[in-house]
Design a protein that fits this description.
Length: 349
Amino acid sequence: MEHSPLRVLEFYSGIGGLHYALMSSGVEASVVAAFDINTSANHVYRSNFPRTPLCQRNICGLTVEYIEQLRGDVFLMSPPCQPFTRQGNKADDKDNRTNSFLHLLDVLLKLVHKPGHVLIENVQGFEVSATRDHLITVLMKCRYTYQEFLLTPTQFGIPNSRMRYYLLAKLTPLKFHFTTTDKPMTILPDGIDGITEPCVAPLCNFIQPMSCSEEDKLLVPPEVLLRYASILDIVQEDSTQCCCFTKAYGHYVEGTGSVLQCNSDGNLEEAFREYLLGGKKSADSLVKLRLRYFSSAEVAGLLWFPAQFQFPCNVTSKQQYRLLGNSLNVHVVSVLLYRILFNDCDKTT
Ligand SMILES: C[S@@+](CC[C@H](N)C(=O)[O-])C[C@H]1O[C@@H](n2cnc3c(N)ncnc32)[C@H](O)[C@@H]1O
């Protein structure tokens, strides 16, 4: 029997991480509508997916009737995460940025044609929020079964930490092919072979060749080294780990992502000893290490965006880091889609 492609609605589409994950999952599906309010994210999305209908709209304004007529079989959503992070004060459902997601849940309750499959991505911390409890109540009312996960790309062989919350849901009578639990799983269920990679690839696999002048542009300035050296996370080409890149990467130092030591002959410990012995008055010893930021293309690679993904030339590097910091790991979502959400989706018993 011939199937027509599943109709996917991509909410909070940003630069299209969910769309790329869907493509790489091999699921026969087509994004029939994507929604985001952010003009620069939409500019990037449009240039990479020129044929996908993208609506520059506030999701709070989408009506049940409008969503109903789109007849979405799959909802993919990555709602704003600031309400659930420490920096965002964990205001949860009291934060206005959660309103659009609460609105979508209300729409879901009222839809006659409900999506058979749902995937939601958010930050770690969402799983203990009142918003998550409300989401579960709505899913139960609508007769979905669900499974939550807390997973990071290093579990998938990618040398980048990005612990994230995922919820996958199937509309009854669709079922998962494993026993679901009411707590987030921190590894993939038994019997799903070949998913978690025992060994993590070194960073050199993700580092792009560049000229000295290109490298110079990415160097951490001496004044930043002088002030913040002790809180930098410094990695080398052979490291198998780097920190989560956030939207402030490149212009704010603390906890925003790792920097790379380009001078592999330099001794990091010695350089630090010199810097500390000198009373932190000179960053010369650290400058010699040639510490640089990862380029936005390298960050995109670590997030598993495909090589064809490009930023239009008028998107500044600050915007690029910002948009990537808001995005997601394409590989992790892709595995969740093809190994779990759509695995045996036709089985109803
Ligand atoms: C966590 S990011 C999602 C990023 C996306 N998955 C990607 O790969 O780039 C959240 C996105 O939601 C968008 N957003 C936030 N509130 C919105 C609203 N009320 N209506 C539409 N989009 C909204 C933001 O502009 C942002 O792009």
